[in-house]
Amino acid sequence: MKTIVALQAAVTAASLDIEPSAAELDAIELEMPLIRAEVELLDAQIMTLDRPANELDERRVRRAGNRVLAARRDLANRVSGTAMSGGAA
Question: Which residues of 39-74 are buried (b: 16+ CB within 10 A; e: fewer)?
Fold first, then answer.
């Protein structure tokens, strides 16, 4: 009978040595404006956790939310534009 531990160690050791591919890094770079906007929204929301939100805080959260929506829209348009031009060629 074979032990499972020996087989498990061989599987996990191989998966930890993998670096992101160039395509994965390009995809992350493409999504960076959205990631930054989401972090900014999270920062604005965190600032309002320990105290009551005033008018400035509400405006900051609303503007950050709008930036997230705009970044998602731009990313969706960029991805669909790339898919359309790639299919036409």
Answer: ebbeebeeeeeeeeeeeeeeebbeebbebbeebeee
Q: CA–CA separation, 71 vs 77, rounded Å?
A: 10
Question: Quick one: angle between helices 55-88 and 22-47, nearest 10?
Answer: 160
Question: What confidence score (pLDDT) does residue 81 get?
Answer: 78
Ranges of residues in the chain whose predicted pLDDT is under 50: 89
- Three-state SS string over the chain comes to CCCHHHHHHHHHHHHHCCCCCHHHHHHHHHHHHHHHHHHHHHHHHHHCCCCCCCHHHHHHHHHHHHHHHHHHHHHHHHHHHHHHHHHHC
Q: What is the pLDDT of residue 89?
A: 44
